[in-house]
Amino acid sequence: MKIYRQTFSEYQQAYIKPLHLLTKPADVKYDLSLKDEAHSQLEDVIAKSRKQLTTQMVLSNFSQSDIGLVLNYIARELKHEKFEPTICVIDCAAFVEQYIGETEKNLAKLVAQAATNNWILFFDEADALFGKRTDIKDTHDRYANQEVSYLLDRLSRHNLLCILEISQKTNLERTKRLGVPILS
């Protein structure tokens, strides 16, 4: 979390512990070398967000400092006289609950709060939302990977910009099949 705070002037803890709010992007040089296709995708995501369309994006194979630069760049590009974007960073490893259904309840509260406050949602270590269990061994295991489908469905109902940081290849393939642009 500390590295993301370096690219923003203001930081505060949100209403529950794994949420952090970043405001006022710091004046840092955007020195991130993206391939032309990735830069074009980033600009497309920003353009859709300006039009207040539901927009989702995945970051993969980025260092934390590069992610901080991308978040700073997005916030600066979406800033205008009447609107200072707030990026809500969700530490997914701490956000996921042990009990079935609790994570979904937390996600519902988070999305409602984000829609009300017009936050940009950044899911740090979103792999945690995909569940750790892959083999269905008992009846409870089949619900282990339900959080991501629930999250994407919930987000599609609101005009939010949502960014997921994903590193595992199987999770990247799942999001690619859902049509979410992947920057790597």
UniProtKB/TrEMBL annotation:
Record-linked InterPro entries: ATPase_AAA_core (IPR003959), P-loop_NTPase (IPR027417)
GO terms for MF: ATP binding
Record bears the keyword ATP-binding: yes
SUPFAM superfamilies recorded: P-loop containing nucleoside triphosphate hydrolases (SSF52540)
Domain ATPase AAA-type core: residue ranges: 74-158
Record keywords, A-Z: ATP-binding, Nucleotide-binding
Superkingdom of source: Bacteria
Protein name (Swiss-Prot/TrEMBL): ATP-binding protein
Species name: Paraglaciecola algarum
